[in-house]
Structure formats: C-alpha cells, structure tokens
Design goal:
This is Carboxymuconolactone decarboxylase. InterPro entries: AhpD-like. 62% of the residues lie in helices and 0% in strands. By secondary structure, the protein is an all-alpha fold. The two termini are 18 Å apart.
C-alpha cells in the first residue's frame, strides 16, 4: 500500500539522513495531521535512542525475540 510504503520511506530517510525531503513530507501531510507527524518523528527518534542505549550498554538480547539479519542487501 502506498501509505505504508511512505511510512517506511519516512523511517528510512530519518535513519539515513536525519531528515525528510519536502516531497515525502507533503505526501504524508495529505494523510496525517501536524500532531500525527510530530508523533511519527518522536516515535522514530525513540526507537533510535533505545537502539543506541541497548547497543552501547551491550544489553543482553531478550530470550525468544526475533532477530534482524546482521547485514542488509545493498540498496536497502
């Protein structure tokens, strides 16, 4: 679905560039309010912060939790 694809693009852009281009922002704003956009940005930032903390503190992985692959294919 295009809506879900744009949410993934938002997360990818924030992770890669710490920014969102104007065209993507405009597409998202047609579906989400300013408040919702702020919530999406805060949510992405919160997950990033948790990742920094858990990785830097070398916290143990949760038993039974799904794992991400160690590397992603080029272009993802």
């Amino acid at each position: 679905m295009p809506e879900e694809a744009d949410l993934i693009r938002l997360c990818d852009a924030l992770h890669r560039d710490c920014d969102v281009d104007d065209a993507l922002w405009a597409r998202l704003r047609t579906r989400y309010s300013e408040e919702a956009m702020l919530a999406l940005l805060m949510l992405a930032g919160s997950y990033r912060t948790v990742s920094y903390l858990t990785n830097a503190l070398r916290l143990p992985l949760e038993a039974g939790a799904r794992r991400f692959p160690h590397s992603m294919p080029a272009g993802n």
